[in-house]
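Pipeline run #58 for the internal structure catalog. This entry was flagged by the ingest filter as a single-chain record with no existing model, so it goes straight to prediction. Upstream metadata was stripped on purpose; only the residue string is passed forward. Reviewer on rotation: M.T. Logging verbosity set to normal.
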Amino acid sequence: MTETQQVTRSRTFSWSDPALTAASLGAISGVEMLRAMRDGKIPAPPILQLVGGTGIEVEEGKVTVFMPAAEFHYNPLGTVHGGIIATLLDTAAGCTVHSTLPAGVGYTSLDLMTRFLKPVTVASGVLRCEGTLITRGRRAATAQSHLYDERGTLLAHATSTCLLFDLATP
């Protein structure tokens, strides 16, 4: 094989209809919804299936997301793309805010401030991204998230502010 020949790899994945998960939004609290996802009672959002997320741990005010670092996450430099890392940080922080919300209240991210500390590769193993709540008011909440490799080394961290709003009821 010459240098210009490449071995092609492929990946196939499937996802569940996001409307099934969205239908639960106004009916149950955020922590109940996240626990139902964790337990397989409602499907995880397509983004977790896209990036290869393998599970979550849920407490009120704390959510941990797991994902093995994989080749399909790589950028041209041979490390996990920063957008994948930011997706994990955003997911853990946003779900942490969601875990504190009562039924009928939703959220959306206003910002995500990230800091990348070390390269992430397949050798990083299963990544663990822990989100914790900093503060929550009536209209905004702030959470932080920390991404660790399989050995417990801190790889990246972020802070996110989320806008809280009442969900429309039919």
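catalog note: The longest helix spans residues 82-98.
catalog note: The chain has a mean pLDDT of 93.
status: ready for reviewer M.T.
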